[in-house]
Design goal:
9 helices, 2 domains
Length: 173
């Protein structure tokens, strides 16, 4: 990817995350990226192509985040790593993740396929540890991710350390 393409994607990311996809024109993205609008069309086809490129980056980042958990075989470590995940996202990536959340609502982009590997490995971990309803426990962890991540990205004042400790103790991991 060229530097100009990265500038375009970064500008689109900022604008889509902060102003919304529907409220952001390709002209606005071009100005923010310091390129011509035609360059956006040449590289991404149209605004939808630009969004598709950002969603692809999101998919790749999800896979990267979940890789360490999905490759783990120890059930307790799987649950521990999954619990810690939302608390370990660097602040420098908040805008990117804010956009992913925003798109789920604004564009009705379903993230089920992104979380499926995490659900599957968590279900396995809870089964191995003898939980009565492993599928529900796995879903609960994913729902906790959604809620905690959303709160963190919105800047809700929460005691991250206290929640981490609470969840780790709750699941005894």
């Amino acid at each position: 990817m060229t530097e100009k393409q990265e500038n375009i994607l970064n500008a689109a990311l900022e604008l889509f995350a902060n102003e919304g996809y529907n409220a952001t024109s390709t002209n606005k993205v071009a100005k923010a990226a310091g390129v011509s609008e035609g360059l956006i069309f040449r590289h991404f086809g149209n605004k939808e192509g630009l969004l598709a490129a950002l969603l692809k980056v999101g998919e790749d980042r999800f896979k990267s985040l979940y890789a360490d958990i999905v490759m783990e075989s120890d059930p307790e470590k799987i649950i521990r790593k999954a619990i810690l995940l939302p608390f370990q996202v660097p602040e420098s990536e908040y805008t990117f993740w804010k956009l992913q959340f925003k798109l789920k609502w604004e564009m009705e982009v379903d993230g089920k396929e992104k979380t499926e590997p995490l659900l599957r490995v968590l279900k396995y971990a809870f089964e191995k540890l003898g939980y009565a309803e492993p599928e529900k426990e796995a879903s609960l962890i994913v729902f906790i991710h959604e809620g905690m991540s959303g709160a963190i990205l919105k800047g809700v004042p929460i005691d991250k350390q206290a929640f981490q400790t609470f969840l780790l103790e709750k699941y005894n991991v």
